[in-house]
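Narrative summary of target 7.
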Amino acid sequence: MRDHLALVVPCMLFAVFAIIAPTSLAACRRAHSEEGVTAPAPSANPPQPPKKGVTGPMLALGGAHSCVLEGGVVRCWGANVNGQLGNGTHLDLARPSLVPSLEGVSTLSLGVHHTCASLTDGTARCWGANGSGQLGDNSRVSRPNPVQVAALHAVTAIECGGAFSCALLLDTTVRCFGQNVQGQLGDGTSKDQRAPVAVRGLRGVAELALGDAFACARINDGTVKCWGENEHGELGDGSGAPHRDPMPVSGLKDVIQLSAGAVHACVVLAAGTVRCWGANIMGELGDGTQLDHPTPVDVPGLTGIAEVRLGRHLSCARRNDGTTACWGWRAFGQTGDGTWHATPEFLAIPRTIEGLVAAHLAVGDEHACARDVQGAVRCWGHDERGQLGGGSREDRPLPTAISW
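Modeled conformation, tokenized:
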């Protein structure tokens, strides 16, 4: 869900992170493994645009926890009441901790209270909360260690939503499992599923993004289809009615990247612009209003965008030159512009984060992280559960470096 790490089809396309990073779930909340972290440049040096070939850890953020994928292994930190950190305990951690006995990870995604990873052998592992069957292991038992998702093979990427999960397969079809009250599994029913079921009539998928109770897919032809809850217009079809089967988002074409927040969604178009739809109570659609939009609207002033990542009432976009702008809810400093506890408590238009030149971006419910062009990881926003990874549990309104 949060990032709102969006999913990319087969291995040859895995160089793109889309996780987010949600929801927030968003995130994206998905990460791809990359090698070769370069040493951080001295802070006195002025920021430079991204350089080709500079790679490093990939980030995925959830409700109040965070993970990093590097070299096929995963480290997590933050909230852990449901075992979502995967280390066999239920203790929150304010520093990154290795997920033991988990190797060969290719993509990673975080939900509100659970985590999933796809492996290079085509299988998937999940851990954390499982009250709705979102771990896909044919049970409703929460797991503090990774368990294999039942009957899933040829998985190219996986995405977590609020209390459900979806996997993208090599044949470009999708399987989902977990909570289904709003039809978010896309199987034509409203029955929860403890093991993966096929999303009906969906093929040619290039990327997935999951919200609290809805899901969207970017199709290879540049269009987008969504299904599930639609109370705030998060399906983008203008109807306001929930759908148990995928429905086209109104007026979208030439989409190259997709992200979902808790109850809103955004896309990047081939022209480098951004369009968003859904809930807008905190200005998260970036159009200068607080009006929900059941169909896509342009985000004014954003051009040259490489990726967009969403959280809970929070949106961030990274430009091709690495500069990053955020908008939406900022009560905990999660817009990264140095403001928090401000009036109003939201930004309805994008504001650039000074001094950050990012190569990769991830957004959680109330926090965000970026890998900068030197390979260092920097996080900002809410830190009550240690989700920023700096060890302090203090909210940060500006990007703060973490290490492990």
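The CA atoms of residues 176 and 185 lie 5 Å apart.
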